Amino acid sequence: MKLCIIFPPLPFGWTPVAPPILEYLAALTKKADPTIEIQLISGSATPDAFEKLDCDLAAISILTPTSVPGYRIADSLRARGIKVVFGGMHASAMPEEAKEHGDAVVIGEGESCWPQVLKDFRAGTLQPFYRGEQVELSDLPTPLYGSLGGGHQFRIVNTSRGCPFNCTFCSVKPFFGGKIRFRPIEHVVRDVAAIPEKMYINGDENIWWPGTENMQRAIDLFTALRGTGKKWMGFGSLGPVLAPLGSKMLNAARDCGMLTVWVGWDAMTDEGLKAYAANGKIGVDRERAVRTLRDHGIDVSLFYMLGSRDDSLDDFKRSVELADRLGVSMHPSLVVPYPGTELARQYEPYIFKELGWEYYNGSYAVFEHPDPDMTPEAREEQFYESSLELLSLPRVLRHMFKVPLRGFPYAHMLSLMNQLPVRKGMKIAYRKWREEKMLVRDKQVLERG
Asked: Is 415's pLDDT higher than 90?
């Protein structure tokens, strides 16, 4: 039996990060049935691989921005007699839609049901839907790191699942649940040691959760990782940084090779944070928390969204001012009400339904705004103007002098490796937006009637 595991092309081209589902699902497959022959395809790295694809079953993992190309690939494969099973966050949020393009859909986490999917396929009894349970993370296999080609330079390690916060824009809690499930620390160390590269990414929603017990667990994890000798970056909230154990935790993170933390800044104003119900994870003084991270020798990149129904045009300018004030790099996005989230439910009456999922990539205004000055075109133009300024080459290079010297030279190299692909993707998005904006505007106007 031949299985092909596919991650469809990203909207704006290749990135150096290997899609984690590919090598991990390959490991789950080998654990369930070692005789299966596996091929891994990262669509952004090898876009022409689908024309020559030869397999019995294709497993396609889709996010909302990759769902349209994922469906297109599935339709082509099924026309050639290849069975297709969908999984991933978008398929879990929209299973009936995914089923229109596939033979089966895995809803939720795959560990508990993937062996059954493979068994049913062999028996010719593939079911239309499989529902994965939220299992404990004590017996996960090490991904088959290094089996994916395409020049990817970063592998992802996960140490937990779930999130207790209620941020309206986020898919993590609806998909993984509100309980934090941790992996055994020794298993994380094992997986990090298996990564062929010298640097990796911790792909957890949050590398340090609030609360004394959770922060001590983070310290224990970082202490155990010191022996791997590898450098890494991760995603963290600001709340725990200023807690009593914060300094000890940050020192342990830096000492085990942490170079950069990507922080969810989310909104430019406190009012915007409250509208997202995201103020609980941010903490009481987020600017001081960012400075504290930098004081501990850790570079900071801020993720944030612009153009919500509670934002104003001034928020776009604030993002540039914030980058200058804090000495951080910025990774912007227009607000996207992803299916399955609370924000999608809140914004449902205002969403431009003429715009398909291909526009849900953080570069288009996909809903109406109550402020007449915040037209879709105004939001998109301001987004690109501020984003291209933040990602301009002089700014990217100037940021090198603001990266903490404790991380030299790896943190400085990582800063370039983070920002330059984002800059390239933003320029591709801008060019595509300029080419298509009249078509998109017609759809938005048609929706408003």
From this structure: no
Helices 185-194 & 212-225 angle (0-180, nearest 10) = 40
Other C-beta atoms closer than 10 Å to the C-beta of 70 total: 28
- Asked whether residue 251 carries a pLDDT value surpassing 80, the answer given is yes
Evaluate whether 10 touches 66 at the Cβ level (below 8 Å). Answer: yes
Tokens of residue 65, six digits = 């921005």
Q: Report the distance separating Cα 198 and Cα 302, nearest Å.
A: 24
Phi, psi of 371, deg, nearest 5? -85, 120
Sequence letter at residue 236: G
Structure tokens belonging to residue 373? 């000055």
Contact (Cβ atoms closer than 8 angstroms) between residue 101 and residue 8: no
% of the chain exceeding 70 in pLDDT = 99
Q: Is the pTM of this model over 0.90?
A: yes
C-alpha to C-alpha distance for 431 and 449, rounded to whole angstroms = 28
Would you place residue 449 in the very low, low, confident or very high pLDDT band (cuts 50, 70, 90)? low
**What is the spatial distance between Cα 205 and Cα 324, in angstroms, rounded to a whole number?**
26
Rounded CA-CA distance 378/334 in Å is: 12
* SS3 call for 253: helix
With residues binned 3-state (H G I as helix, E B as strand, rest as coil), the percentages for the chain, rounded to 5, are 45, 15, 35
Tell me the one-letter amino acid at 415.
S
Query: Distance between CA atoms of 370 and 362, rounded to whole angstroms?
Result: 20
* pLDDT reading at 446 higher than 70: no
For residues 436-440, give the mean pLDDT: 79
The DSSP string of 153-192 is: -BEEE--EE------TT-SHHHHH-SS-EEPPHHHHHHHH
Three-state DSSP class for residue 241: helix
Please answer whether residues 180 and 162 qualify as being in contact, where contact means their C-beta atoms are separated by less than 8 angstroms. Answer: yes
Cα(328)–Cα(261) distance, integer angstroms: 11
DSSP code of 198? S
Amino acid, single-letter form, for residue 384: Y
Q: Which residues contact 315 (CB under 8 A, 6 or more apart)?
A: 267, 268, 269, 272, 306, 307
Strands laid side by side in the 104-107 sheet:
37-42, 2-7, 57-61, 83-87, 104-107, 129-131
